[in-house]
Each structure stands twice: as C-alpha cells, then as structure tokens.
Amino acid sequence: MENIIIAKNVDRVFHTQSGDFQALKDINIEIPTGKLTILRGRSGSGKTTLMNILGALDKPTGGEVLLEGNDIVKLDENARAKLRRNDIGFVFQSVALIPMMTALENVEFALRMTRYKGNRAERAMECLKLVGLSQRADHLPQELSGGEQQRVAIARAIAHRPKVLFTDEPTGALDTVTGLTVVKIFKDLTTKEGVTIVMTTHDVGLMELGDKVYELEGGELIHGEQ
Questions:
Q1: pLDDT of residue 170
Q2: Is residue 206 part of a domain?
Q3: 65 Cβ partners below 8 Å, 6+ apart?
Q4: Is 124 exposed, middle or buried (0-12, 13-18, 19+ CB in 10 A)?
Q5: What percent of the chain has pLDDT over 70?
Q6: CATH number of the CATH domain containing 65
Q7: What are phi and psi of 215, to 5 degrees?
Q8: DSSP-assigned letter for residue 174
C-alpha cells in the first residue's frame, strides 16, 4: 500500500469556557508507507493535535482517518486501545523511562505490556543495537545522556514492531548534533524495520531529512512537499 494513512477533511474543535477553538481546519494529508513524514509548525500550529488524531489518541470533530483503508475514527475505544497497543508506537519529548530499570529492562518491560510473543530479551537487545546502544544496555536512565535516553525510548517504541511510529518533538530537548543523530536513526529504522514514522518538529533544519513534509499554521495545512 502506497499510503498507510490518509486523513480526509479532518477538523478538530475544542469546546472551552471562553468559547469554541478550532485547532484543525479541513486537513487532507497522506502518510507514505515505510517513510519518514515530518509535520512542521510553530507551537500552537496544530501539529501535535493532528498527530494525536492520526495515532488514535484523540478523535476529530469531523473527517476521516484511514489506516490501511479502515476508518479508525469509527472504532470504539476498546478497538482503538488494541490498535495503539499492537500497531502503533509513540515517542514523546519526555522520555518517561522507568528509573530503577536498565535500558534493556525498560525495552523488555514495554514488550511485556504489548504481550509480545517472541523472545523479549533477544528482541530488546536487537532494538538497542538498532539505535546504537547495545553497549549501554545495563545502564540505568540516570547514567545515560539525554540523547541516549531518547534512543532508549525509540528502541522501546519500536520493539513490538508497530506499523507506525509517532514521535512528538523528539529532538526538542536535545542539542542540534544529537537531534540530527536521532532523526538519522529514524531514517535508518524506516529502511531496516520497514516502520512508517511520523514526526512533529518546529526545527527548520530537520525538514530536509523527511521523505515528505507538511507544514501547519493556525490549524491549517499551508505547505506539503515530497
């Protein structure tokens, strides 16, 4: 399938005490299978809201979100939870590693949560190797740098072999060089693991690394390029 996700006419309105706020307006995008797609925009542009909708964390007020041809908006909450557990991975700016577990144990624990059927220790080490951290497998999070912690979070998110990995400002707390390293890891993962990756960022310098880039402003799509 050329595009694993297609969003059609997506709107998102939040109802607040001060009135309605339209966070997304008539968004139409296509996420190519096995590629890195970047959603770019300033804070408040709507990129995180869009990512949450594409990742089945939130529902749009209107429109469709097709994952492999199936409209995930119509699924009930149990089906959406199962979809997130089995087919989707998430990496956030806050890595939220478990402090008393080593890097390897953090990845293994995620596999237990997703009820991974294979050899968890073997798969966890394989994922740490993919992100260049096999030598740090027995280190606790506080013994790792910020960039290394982010790479453990990536290994944890891909361990159950999701179809799509969503990453929200994964380089926001990192210096430029470390941030570029993380995005290059994403590019490698699309090739080695065949995973589709959707990343939000406000960093113009990272845009050239995306296979496809969409730019949002004020909840509207203002630019899309391949």
A1: 86
A2: yes
A3: 5, 6, 7, 8, 10, 53, 54, 56, 71, 72, 73
A4: buried
A5: 98
A6: 3.40.50.300
A7: -115, 135
A8: S
| 3-class DSSP assignment, residue 85 | helix
Report how many domains make up the chain. 1
Q: Which residues lie across from 215 on neighbouring strands?
A: 40, 223
Measured CA to CA, the distance from residue 174 to residue 25 in angstroms comes to 31
| Rounded Cα distance, 142 and 209, in Å | 30
Query: Residue holding tokens 């390293």?
Result: 181
**DSSP classification of residue 167:** E
Q: Which amino acid would we find at residue 185?
A: I
Contact 55, 166 (CB under 8 A): yes
Q: Which two tokens stand for residue 176?
A: 């430029």
Is residue 157 included in any domain, yes or no? no
For residues 199-222, give the mean pLDDT: 89
Interval 26-62: pLDDT, tens: 999 999 999 999 999 988 899 999 999 999 999 999 9
201's enclosing H/E stretch is strand 196-201
User: How many other C-beta atoms lie within 10 A of the C-beta of residue 108?
Assistant: 22
H helix and E strand count, the chain:
6, 10
Indicate the pTM of the whole model. 0.91
Helix (H) or strand (E) holding 28: strand 19-32
